[in-house]
Specification:
Blueprint lengths: L48 E7 L6 E7 L5 E5 L5 E4 L9 E2 L6 E2 L1 H4 L4 H12 L15 H17 L4 H20 L8 H29 L9 H14 L3 H12 L6 H15 L4
Antiparallel strand pairs: 1-2, 3-4, 5-6
Length: about 280
């Protein structure tokens, strides 16, 4: 799929058209559609982060990865699909842990404890071609840096034959980063309208992939689905269905949540709000 852009700079250009469903075939708060014009202020993003040391389970080398300091990212709101919006920093840019030596990348939850067979697959199909990470700014991760790291993590989930839920969650995080880049795109960006249109298209493809993977995982995997408990997974599937032009499916999943005996009143209320938005033609 062509939306896995930026892998050429890592030596993995051949992965641009990787089928995200590889090895699975045949196996059993509102999102904004327009960029809001917000007053810009100077924020020292580097003051929010620090270098955390990791040991790579693929190549056994230690490296540092930028991480947001505990308590520094203040949550302001959540979009309809639960994307967190923070004050002064987009903490999502610092979610992916990536080894700069061998190219193994993952969300922190699944970075350690990689089984030997999966590590071997990463070495064979990624490390053998990987040329290293290139950062645009040495002090912070730009949106382009973060999106490339997400693409690298997504390739890793396919190569190591990771769970459907992990693939879905990485797709969701990538979509959130694409949205963040669009919302924060500088006014003087060349061909800004075309760039925004492409970012919307890429985000929609990632949202659709996230929905498909999570729906498959819901019927095949035990809870939680990556970090989503059952009620949250149901809600996210409903929200993603609405965002990707499938309101009927969204209403089915939302109704399933509203009538559940295991869901909190808070998540049920989110589902009711989502149903109202769908019925009012807001999707």
């Amino acid at each position: 799929m062509g939306f896995l852009r930026g892998l050429e700079s890592l030596g993995l250009g051949k992965m641009n058209d990787l089928d995200l469903h590889e090895d699975q075939k045949g196996s059993d708060t509102d999102k904004k559609t327009e960029v809001e014009v917000k007053p810009k202020k100077v924020v020292d993003e580097a003051s929010f982060i620090f270098e955390k040391t990791y040991k790579c389970p693929v190549c056994d080398r230690e490296f540092k990865s930028k991480t947001v300091k505990t308590g520094k990212a203040r949550l302001l709101s959540q979009d309809i699909d639960l994307r967190p919006v923070f004050h002064d920093i987009d903490a999502l840019k610092y979610e992916i842990v990536a080894c700069p030596t061998c190219g193994y990348a993952s969300l922190p939850r699944t970075f350690d404890g990689l089984p030997s067979p999966q590590a071997r697959l990463v070495r064979e199909r990624i490390s053998s071609s990987f040329t290293g990470l290139q950062e645009s700014n040495g002090n912070i991760y730009t949106y382009d840096d973060a999106i490339t790291r997400c693409h690298l993590a997504l390739v890793n989930t396919v190569v190591k034959r990771g769970k459907l839920s992990e693939r879905g969650y990485v797709c969701l995080e990538t979509a959130w980063l694409l949205r963040g880049k669009r919302e924060n795109l500088p006014d003087d960006t060349p061909d800004r309208a075309a760039v925004i249109e492409q970012l919307i298209q890429d985000e929609q493809e990632m949202l659709a992939s996230a929905k498909d993977f999570l729906m498959e995982a819901f019927s095949q995997e035990r809870m939680p689905l990556y970090s989503l408990d059952e009620p949250t997974a149901i809600y996210v599937i409903a929200a993603l269905s609405a965002e990707t032009g499938d309101p009927d499916n969204a209403l089915r999943w939302a109704s399933r949540l509203i009538t559940s005996n295991n869901a909190s009143e808070r998540i049920k209320e989110r589902a009711r709000v989502l149903k109202d938005k769908i019925n009012n033609g807001e999707f």
